[in-house]
Amino acid sequence: MPAVEVSRLLKGAPPVGKRQTLDEYRAAGGYEALRKGLGMTPEQITQAVIDSGVRGRGGAGFPAGRKWTFVPKNTGKPVYLAVNGDESEPGCFKDRQIMERVPHLLIEGAILACRAIGAQTAYIYVRGEYPSCIGNLEAAVEEARAAGILGSDVLGSGWRCDVWVHSGAGAYICGEETGMLSSIEGGRGYPRIKPPFPAVEGLWRSPTIINNVETIANVTLIVRDGADAWKSAGDADTPGTRLVGISGHVVRPCHVEIDPAKTTLRELIYDHAGGIWKGRKLKAVIPGGSSVPVLPATQIDVPFTYGAVKAAGSLAGAAGVIVMDDTTCMVDALLNLMEFYHHESCGQCTPCREGTGWLEKLVRRIWSGGGKPEDIALLDRVADTVGGAGAGKTICFLADSAVMPTKSFLKHFRADFERAVAEGGSPVWKARASRRKPAAHAGAR
Amino acid sequence: MSHATRPDPAELAKLPVEGPSFDELRAKLDPVVARYPARAGAMLPVLWVVQRARGGWLHPQSIREVADYLHVPQAHVEGVITFYTMFKDHPVGREVVMVCKTLSCRLRGAQDVIDALEDRYGIEMGGTTADRRFTIETGECLGLCDMAPCMLVGKDRFGDLTPESAVKHLEERR
Amino acid sequence: MPKLTIDGKTMEVPKGATVIQAARAAGIEIPHYCWHPGLSVAGNCRICLVEVEGMPTLQIACNLLCADNMVVRTQSEKAKGGRADVMELLLINHPLDCPICDQAGECKLQEYSFRIGKDRSSFDFPKVHKPKHVRFSDKVMFDAERCILCTRCVRFCAEVAKRDELDIVNRGDRNEIAVKRGGELENDYQMNVIDVCPVGALTSMDFRFKSRVWFLENAKSVCSGCSRGCNVTVGSRWNRVLRVIPRENPHVNQWWMCDAGRFTYKGNDADTRLGAPMIRKNGALAECSWDEALDAAAKGLRDAGADLLALVSGRLTNEEMWLAKDVLAHLGTPHRDVKPRAFAKDDFLRTGDGNPNSRGAALLGIAPGTGGSGLTSLGSRAFRGAALFGEDLDDRPEALEALSKCGFVLVVGSHETETSRRAAHVVLPGVTPFEKDGTYVNVSGRVQRLARSVIAPGEAWPDWKILGALRARLTGAPAPRTPADAFAEMCAASPAFSGLPWNGLGEHGADARTPEPAGAAR
Known about the structure:
The complex is a heterotrimer.
Chain A: H1 22-27, H2 32-38, H3 42-52, H4 64-68, E1 80-85, H5 94-101, H6 103-117, E2 121-126, H7 131-146, E3 162-167, H8 177-184, E4 208-212, H9 213-225, H10 227-230, E5 242-248, E6 254-258, H11 265-272, E7 282-286, E8 295-296, H12 306-311, E9 320-325, H13 330-344, H14 350-367, H15 373-386, H16 398-422, H17 427-435
Parallel strand pairs in A: 1-2, 1-4, 2-3, 5-9
Antiparallel strand pairs in A: 5-6, 7-8, 7-9
Helix pairs in contact in A: 2-6, 2-9, 3-6, 5-6, 5-7, 6-9, 13-14, 13-16, 14-15, 14-16, 15-16
Chain B: H1 9-14, H2 22-33, H3 43-53, H4 60-70, H5 74-81, E1 95-100, H6 103-106, H7 110-121, E2 127-128, E3 134-139, E4 151-153, E5 156-158, H8 163-173
Parallel strand pairs in B: 1-3
Antiparallel strand pairs in B: 1-4, 2-3, 4-5
Helix pairs in contact in B: 2-3, 3-4, 4-5, 7-8
Chain C: E1 3-6, E2 9-12, H1 19-25, E3 49-52, E4 59-60, E5 71-73, H2 77-92, H3 108-116, E6 134-135, E7 140-142, H4 152-160, E8 167-169, E9 176-178, H5 192-196, E10 202-204, E11 217-222, E12 231-237, E13 240-246, H6 259-262, E14 278-281, E15 284-287, H7 290-304, E16 308-312, H8 318-331, E17 336-337, E18 342-345, E19 351-353, H9 358-364, E20 385-389, H10 397-403, E21 408-413, H11 418-423, E22 426-429, E23 438-441, E24 446-450, H12 463-475, H13 483-493, E25 510-511
Parallel strand pairs in C: 1-5, 16-17, 16-20, 20-21, 21-22
Antiparallel strand pairs in C: 1-2, 3-4, 3-5, 6-7, 7-10, 8-9, 11-12, 12-13, 14-15, 14-22, 18-19, 23-24, 24-25
Helix pairs in contact in C: 2-3, 7-12, 8-12, 8-13
């Protein structure tokens, strides 16, 4: 079956590295959705988003329209929109395509979302490692302001709306929605305990709605085309298109916009990304960014919808497909992820602060040849001690995000760990030890 | 990385403050502060402006001035700076190089790139080249997985790196 | 008023109450580190995990609002397992240095580890190392390795002391509490961070290594530093006061006290303590027996009669003031006064009045009577005699000069002073507030118990006993045998204290019976 690419979000987008200007965007019908939206009531916009069924593209998949209805009415406080462009999940680079190439699509969606939730200020939080996105978004915001699209009189409607770009500075946890709020307020990116929920008390203790970049970009399309037309892609579970990134051991690492109901994981890997590199075989795939469970090669014949990937034992998450070929040592791959979560744990709450380090140390010991047979069971046990989906032991999901790969790696690829214990370490470590100083490993702390 | 050992503040304070005076920076900072309902909200953007304008790192004097400017305690500014890896509380090279080390890049040879850079410049990741041209450190997933292995040099990105091409890119910038 | 069930106990709680509060009120203690009743909820330690019927994940009791029909289980296998997991993780990087840790014995980490932890750890890696012996100030020492990052200290400074002096630096398992670089803790309440620290990370420079806490004898008393009357626990050993820490009293000081109050004990063991009565003979003070001294004092007072100026210290207890007033009434002198004592004022606990019992003095009428003179008249008017009960004039050289010209001067005091050396004809050794029982009335009218924690040196007598003995000699009235007797006598005669029970004051005191202003509706 040929690879089917759909073009909605990135329709007319310039190539990677370039930005669609305001004039180009307008020539393609840009900001007509806003004009339409200004003629609608906030409730009508919200209803359109509810009707579309669009689910949060940041990973959790919560229905965005329903989220908007959580904003309490008449509190006397301002309402804020925070757009999550802190795309820091390993393996994910889809939001970058929007922010860098079609920033006006995002800005238009942000204005519409503000209109719907009663906000007049939106902050687009972009990770510090995305200088091209920050620069392009800021340029687009300036264009929009100069054109009267942003500011005190949006398109002559008399309604004020501001959008500001807020740059992060190197902290994965700021992609956690409340960690992002702490960061926008100027603090350490500490996630917040709930309640209060952000929709009630978010930025500066005012009602705040947080949506992912791709979600907000879709709002533009939903308002422009109507919910029904928008729903023509996808299915009831995952309406709309999805932007997916495919990376790792594939011939052609790439991003692609797909109809999730009509595209399987296999097609993403073999058609869109050209299959496994170097003529090798597939060993494992992480479908939704590094925090979701890994799947063995046998589990890839599923459509890329939230429900189908979940049924296969993982999560579509933030649509970062990481592919590993049959030469991959899964101990090495897991160590890399454990280094990541350990490094990125904010350290606020006990299980994550202490546990992510323990997980990394255990995997490193196995990787570097010091592992004992009982270490594998211990690793599994420590993972349970630290958290796990729905354990509730931590303030946010970061610890659980370290636990899910750990548990799934052990479940599907235990043999790699047993081999590393029995044979004096991971093949990666052994090859390295013979070449360089022992145990050297980038980022080892 | 900024959260290695805390530098000795007394030693750092002896270093000169590069770049414009804080009063000169105010013209740039005031409109940024105005974007937030509370001054402290401008913390990250203000730190970015000051860091870029003043030699790529935050001198103890800069930290004090930012604290005063935003009406927050100095300890709070230090807490923020040491939380985010891209804020530097010690001198760095003229450009910071972030070599991605996370999974998608590692799967495609990031470690070889890192090794090559360490060997070429005789430093470990996090170190600064002898001529202070570059500080080279590892970064966590830079979101350039489609061009793995990759690195950021200042605001410029380089992808599909090989050990040779990585070194070549840096050498060409010298 | 939500009605919920915790561990099978059904209770009704005020709206807005959290599960940890409700449980506490019902006598069920849910382990906690970061939660403190006087601070905002942080929810970071995760040790207060409980299971709630109908909720799929464990919940932290400190941030869980009570709701109608909520069923909470603190002892289910899942809840206990969750807490044991958190406990294990708290300990993996924590130094096992309890034998040399000053917190041992009052460490929540030790306590919960024993109660809910596992008996061994599977963690066999080197621990994360962080700075030790970090001086936060000359009062507070920090050990980052022992710290569990609960942020109680950070929140105390920001929320209670209103001085944001602490924050967290670094990230992840390298997080550390820190003051600003090159800076120190400066606020006047900083030592409370030592008390709120649930582990041995913050210790008192003053108290550390002086004694294991389990060797301390603890007396529940009241601070004598100012008229707030913060409730304190005085810890002593070998008959020496070693520390003063705040004791919770919702009516007075909540959980806090100022740093200066903690150091009020410092003069207690001074070399200048008076250990024996003295009479001036041939110009010099010489030790003598109590009988001899009391006879001489009584004679001097009687001779001075209505022309006696009496300074009654605002540091004396109500009972002592009462006895002093009775003595002065018998002598017929209206010249009685309290010397004001300054104490830095702030907008939190420190009242600015360094006399802990000013209010008691006012209620008992220790002030110049009709036609009477006070302290300020010293120097402009000659008195036949003067009596200083617990007071001195070292800080007022001119008044002291005038005092030394009086025909007879009695000084009752715990320390040798310039006043006693220069002016006294009779010196009777009294005791400090750490060495006697009694009551004070604080600035807002709270009658609170002062408790003896150590025994006075030598032959010193508590001031109430001295005053009782003097009164017996002057009037024949029986001397009270205990401060409780004196208290009962005072309560019977003084409307402000009418009906207050000595033993019924409890740990939190009781409000004085202030007479209603005329016409005021109740």
